[in-house]
Amino acid sequence: MWENIKEFASEFFVTGDPLIYGADVSIALTIIAVVSALTYFKKWTWLWKDWLTTVDHKKIGIMYVIASLLMLFRGGVDALLMRTQLAIPDSEFLSPEHYNQIFTTHGVIMILFMAMPLMFGLFNLVIPLQIGARDVAFPFLNSLSFWLFFFGAMLFNMSFVIGGSPDAGWLAYPPLSGAAHSPGVGQDFYIWGIQISGIGSLMTGINFIVTILKMRAPGMKLMKMPMFSWSVLSSCLTIILAFPILTVTLALLFIDRYFGAHFFTLDGGGNPMMYINLIWMWGHPEVYIVVLPAFGIFSEIVATFSKKRLFGYKSMVFALMSISFFSFFTWAHHFFTMGSGADVNAFFALTTMLIAIPTGVKVFNWLFTMFRGQISFQTPMLWTIGFIPCFVVGGMTGVLLSVAPADFQFHNSYFLIAHFHQVLIGGVAFGYFAGLYYWWPKVFGFKLNEKIGKWAFWTWNIGFYVCFMPQYVLGLMGMTRRVSSYGWDRGWWELNLVSTVGGFLMGIGFLFQVWQILHSIKFMERDTTGDPWNGRTLEWSIPSPAPVYNFATIPHVDEKDPLWEEKLRLAQGHAPKPVPPLEPIHMPKNSGIPFVMSFCWFVAGFGLVFDWLWIAIPGLIGVAACMLAHSFNYKTDYYIPVDEIKRTEAAARGVF
Predict the structure, then answer these.
(1) Mean pLDDT to the nearest integer, 452-477
(2) CA distance from start to end of the chain
(3) Cα 24 from Cα 161, distance rounded (Å)
(4) How many whole angstroms separate alpha carbon 340 and alpha carbon 297?
(5) Model pTM greater than 0.70?
């Protein structure tokens, strides 16, 4: 029996690599520390009542942000491990198998488990406040969306120490991802981790479309909405059209692996190129899904810190919606080399060039907004200004890649790697960092330290250019993607070493951000005004942090920048607008069902990964039981009385 246990453990747990053993120890110590702290300070009840069961969009947003920053750390460590391996030729720091696992998990984590939740976190923290709503349209669904993402991410990350990570690339192209070439469970972790979290992403898209279209404050017509709200609407419309494609594609891959079907198996009558078409029909819109909200963030920040109304509001709206539409007609530029023919290649080359036009329009909008403005160079504005040249370079190299004959040379090279990171880091990461800095005082009630923030900004930016500019040259020199080692005779090592130094500088920039948060918590600069940046939109009209009900009375909106226009009215000597009398506020009750249901999905996914139906079936039964229980739950809301509202408002505004 003991021998059987040892044999099972050796197959179940990942062994043989010191890095894995180090991860095992760190995971165990972290779990022990968290459990001990919660027990010592008697916080288990607080954790359950205030966080695990919450349906408050602000708390859900905070949990999204925390989870995404943890995933940024994990994905960043993966990146540094790869750069360490590539710093010098003939390195043996990582084995080829381990390297393949790391670049696969790095891509998945950074796109799906870092960028997406950070985006959803900002949706939750800002959108209801910005449109004058008390919550999202479906609070229960919002909580379920988060916990599905969380447990999907945990299932995927578990593969690092249990079973083995996927190693077929972040998009899992067949035949590498098929059962013949990936016989282990790593690829099944990939499928079910993404499937479970993807269901949550689709729910979030539906939720925020309904929230924006149906819950805006009275008077806020669509063409009076803040630009961030427009960017979220365009992103969510893209989500609900793109993510079902991902769901179906991964389901077909699972059927291939689990039941021995041949959708993507060439010698079985299938076609692996069908998978590549399907995955990029989701994959390229996904790039715009994560970058569109960043465009909205930059629009809000530029207007606020230039003290001017955003230039070309209608053209910005048109640009956002155009990008959302055209993003579904560009996917084939990812594989011009597959031999579709000149006509197909020409069509997708033209659509790729066409989508660059509305993308470029926004840059000019931001520049004209700053022109002759009273610009204040606070940290959010620095990230915005840093984004512009970075994204211009990324956009120009993207147009270069859209030219099919040129792409035949650049394809599968480090030139493409540099372009992809130029757009995703320079556009998405810089944008979401800017948004976090901008809305941080609204969420937590204190500003982040500006001095440390500027150190983080410059370290990140310098490290970024040092890391990725050499990769353009390496691509032109013939260095291909996914190589774990190379010889001294290639002439690549100097540029790879420089690139690795840049990667570690970016890591130092992240450490500065962690220090900035910890320092600001200890020596916090309290925001007593609710409006630390002299903002223009509704979220800055309420106390910081926002009360559970957001607005004591729902505002009425007459202008595009309602708070700014009201400030101008008051400066001209006009009387404040009359405030309607307070009334009891209808709010949703907390619920533990989303947490339990998502955990059941996690159990079911884990069982399907290992083909253990004795675990998978009870997990699916648990999901059905949670759905049934919720359908009979009629006590889903409550009212906040007027006296409690008065006390909350008085305390929040410092009136006693």
Answers:
(1) 97
(2) 70
(3) 7
(4) 38
(5) yes
